[in-house]
Specification:
The protein has one helix and twelve strands. It is mainly β and 167 residues long. The protein has two domains: 76 residues; 79 residues, no CATH class. A twelve-stranded antiparallel beta sheet has the order 1-2-3-4-5-6-7-8-9-10-11-12, with no helix packed on it. The longest helix is centred in the first third of the chain and has 4 residues. The relative contact order is 0.09.
């Protein structure tokens, strides 16, 4: 005799199981979460893995949102280490681009705000100011004894405070 098969609705529900001190949740789309659960939602510290994109977030959760400090690694080589609020980069953090460049500064709702440091993949540092209508960049070090006067590629993408190449 065959064991009973789950109904179609049950097959679409996430599967919960305990693992060490955390709960492991396996979703029908292949995503997986391991960490704290409170009230049926991701709460506390945990790791979420997106099966389709290869993205991984490890850090603090509040009511199913990335909230607090954490690290989000993207499947294409980008990553962000810093503060999150309501699922978005929000607060101080470092954004690493796939080409090896990075930005250190403040973010609000996934946008760069105020001043920060952009370091290109070849090591040239720029102090970047997003406090005005358009981002401005000035070199703070020399690369191969040449002072560069132009902002790094992608800094001015036409949106005030937009994180260059974040999308």
């Amino acid at each position: 005799r065959q064991p009973p098969q789950p109904s179609a609705a049950a097959a679409q529900q996430p599967r919960f199981r305990r693992h060490r001190e955390a709960v492991v949740v396996e979703y029908p789309n292949g995503d997986q979460y391991e960490g704290g659960i409170g009230g049926g939602l991701r709460n506390g510290r945990g790791t979420y893995r997106w099966a389709a994109s290869g993205n991984v977030f490890t850090g603090q959760w509040l009511n199913d949102d990335m909230h607090g400090n954490g690290t989000h690694r993207y499947g294409d080589g980008r990553s962000y280490i810093g503060a999150f609020r309501a699922g978005r980069m929000h607060g101080p953090g470092t954004y690493f681009f796939a080409d090896g460049s990075r930005f250190v500064g403040d973010f609000i709702n996934d946008f760069i705000v105020g001043t920060g440091l952009y370091r290109s993949a070849d090591g040239v540092r720029y102090d970047v100011d997003w406090s005005g209508a358009e981002p401005r960049a000035a070199p703070t070090t020399m690369a191969d004894r040449m002072i560069l006067q132009a902002p790094p590629a992608g800094v001015d993408d036409g949106r005030r405070g937009a994180c260059p190449r974040c999308t």
